Amino acid sequence: MKCREFFTKHAENRDRCKELQKLANEGEDVLRFEAESASEDSPGPVKNAEHLWRQIINPTHFDSEKNEIKATAFADVSDKGGSVNRDYEPYESVYAKAVARVADLNQKKPEMNAKLVGLVRLSCLAVREITTEINSPGKPVRGFIVVDTALKGDESHADICQITSQPGQSRAVRSRLVEIANQYLQEHILSGSQQLN
Length: 197
Hints:
This protein is of the alpha+beta class. The protein is 33% helix and 18% strand. It is built from 5 helices and 9 strands, in the order H-H-E-E-E-E-H-E-H-E-E-E-E-H. It has a 5-stranded antiparallel β-sheet with strand order 5-1-4-9-8, sandwiched between helices. Strands 2-3 form a two-stranded antiparallel ribbon. It has a two-stranded antiparallel ribbon with strand order 6-7. Strand 8 and strand 9 form a beta hairpin. The longest helix is centred in the last third of the chain and has 25 residues, at 167-191. The chain is globular. The N and C termini lie far apart (42 Å).
């Protein structure tokens, strides 16, 4: 199955990462999806050298006392996919999209009380290098793929999708992803940057 075929088939599936995990468990090489485009609106596959902006818009995903992003901020990487924007799009544009998304969510789901906590910048290569040897000693297992999933009007859109499904492995790779996000956050706090409130 081709990357675009898979993502077109599962465009409305909120468990599409679980479908990727099934393919991986069946021996399908889902890593090759990273070299393909999932959308006709795509500017091309996501390269290792790129960075990815992740919107943190749910206040419950951020611990203001510890100045840390919680693991729940990345729970979607295991099911529907973790939405990010590729950083060839200017920061100001991605920030404006996040503000608009918060306004839309507060209109549709006021109980969520959405708030733009900020944007976290992730290295694509660092995300792709997350591995675990839990249940696979001596044979590191990749945790995620980063796939171009461009949308009309949001061509820089991509998704982080978890491809390992064993419970111990899943927890380990998601924990590492949160660590990477919090490393950026701590650098931001120490530098006084205004890119994450």
